[in-house]
Amino acid sequence: MPQITMIAAAAENNALGKDNDLVWHLPDDFKRFKELTTGHHIIMGRKTFETFPKPLPNRTHIVITRKKDYQKEGAVVVNSLEKALELAKDDPQPFIIGGGEIYELALPEADKIELTRVHGTFEADAFFPEIDEKNWTLVASHFHPKDERHNYSFTYLTYQRAE
């Protein structure tokens, strides 16, 4: 069984982004995202996929959409989370990478959450679901201060589904 991991950067008010874009720029978080997801299946909604200038290298892109005839080069297109997870079943750790609606759908299926908690609150139109502490155990936490390359401090949080 693969370990399904949700990976996201969300503000203290769970804001993910606005108008299909992130509301912050955190190079070290992008670097960590790349390190964790390279070589794996990344599962996302159509709007998230369309924010990429081109498919991310060395990853299998699975795009979930309700649009029946949607096709994009570099992506496997499916119409449900179940179908996406079925396609990723041979990957020991497929990643759910957004957006808000997809995270909401995937939360009950996820085994792990890699969350970058951006310290601030932002106006947004996409949000990460609330993490219920009864269902999740924080297993790792690493603080990253604000610096010349990062306008906000943030903390990498790793949650494991509680037994």
Automatic annotation (TrEMBL):
One of its GO terms (molecular function) is dihydrofolate reductase activity. Pathway: Cofactor biosynthesis; tetrahydrofolate biosynthesis; 5,6,7,8-tetrahydrofolate from 7,8-dihydrofolate: step 1/1. Residues 3-161 form the DHFR domain. Its EC number is 1.5.1.3. It comes from the Bacteria. It catalyses: (6S)-5,6,7,8-tetrahydrofolate + NADP(+) = 7,8-dihydrofolate + NADPH + H(+). The keyword Oxidoreductase applies. Keywords: NADP, One-carbon metabolism, Oxidoreductase. InterPro entries: DHFR, DHFR-like_dom_sf, DHFR_dom. Belongs to the dihydrofolate reductase family. Key enzyme in folate metabolism. Catalyzes an essential reaction for de novo glycine and purine synthesis, and for DNA precursor synthesis. This is Dihydrofolate reductase.
